[in-house]
Amino acid sequence: QSVLTQPPSASGTPGQRVTISCSGSSSNIGSNFVCWYQQLPGTAPTLLIYRNNQRPSGVPDRFSGSKSGTSASLAINGLRSEDEADYYCAAWDDRLSGHYVFGTGTKVTVL
Amino acid sequence: QVTLKESGPVVLKPTETLTLTCTVSGFSLSNVRMAVSWIRQPPGKALEWLAHILSNDEKSYSPSLRRRLTISKDTSKSQVVLSMINVDPLDSATYYCARIPDYGEYVIDYWGQGTLVTVSS
Predict the structure, then answer these.
(1) A51 touches chain B (CB under 8 A)
(2) CB spacing of B114 vs A1 below 8 angstroms
(3) I want to staple B103 with a disulfide (CB 3.0 to 4.6 A). Which of A16, A104, A108, B35 is the partner?
(4) Closest CA to B111 of B39, B56, B19, B31
(5) Residues pairing with B5 in the sheet
(6) Closest Cα to residue A36, out of A108, A110, A111, A109?
(7) Sheet harboring B79-84: ordered strands across?
(8) How many CB pairs under 8 A join A and B?
């Protein structure tokens, strides 16, 4: 039931740059802020990016977010082994009285 | 520090009602603009937002599950309760509760550890 579409997987070698796309619509990404959450294996998700491109304290500046129109993207620069995780975009959706929507999720593998 | 902890049944049968409790600490459910939400994740699948309740007691539900969910809170006990009627094996998932410190800008800053619920006959 995810209305935000992400590629199922992405990969890179240590030190490389990896980008993950998130495609939505005018009712969600097009009119609201985007967040990104990182989910390490076997753990609960944690906040990675908020307000499209802001990092909470403690998140390395290797992680960056951007948004354009109804799409958003997450970039990981200088990929490290500990970045191997699932990544989810999310945004508020104004339709149907409003609800929060997550992306389909992207598994990042460090080769 | 801020913590959220989910509790509830581990296993239940189809058609039963699932009741989950989220007990929070380190903040108050009456804090202005605060919200607590429930999110679930079937094994190997994506996150799915279920519902939230605001500090002013307003509630929102997933459009696809609205008819089966009820969310409520007891501020004095620091608890948020989610009920789901008529469960099905497809409702088997890890259920998380999470905090949104300002529902005007929907950002989940703390998550519980999650509780795995299995629906099986």
Answers:
(1) yes
(2) no
(3) B35
(4) B39
(5) B23
(6) A108
(7) B3-7, B18-25, B79-84, B69-74
(8) 64
Q: Does A92 touch chain B (CB under 8 A)?
A: yes
The pLDDT of residue A1 is 61
In this complex, which of A47, A92, A99 lies closest to B109 when CB atoms are compared? A47
DSSP A14-76: TT--EEEEEE--TTTTTTS-EEEEEE-TTS--EEEEBTTTBPPTTS-TTEEEEEETTEEEEEE
pLDDT in tens, chain A (111 residues): 678 999 999 999 999 999 999 999 999 999 999 999 999 999 999 999 999 999 999 999 999 999 999 999 999 999 999 999 999 999 999 998 889 999 999 999 999
Q: Chain A residue closest to B41 (CA)?
A: A44
User: Is A17 part of the contact surface with chain B (CB cutoff 8 Å)?
Assistant: no
CA distances from A74 to A82, A86, A88, B73 (A): 16, 12, 10, 35
**Contact assignment for B107 to A47 by CB distance below 8 Å:** yes
CB contact under 8 A, B111 and A44: yes
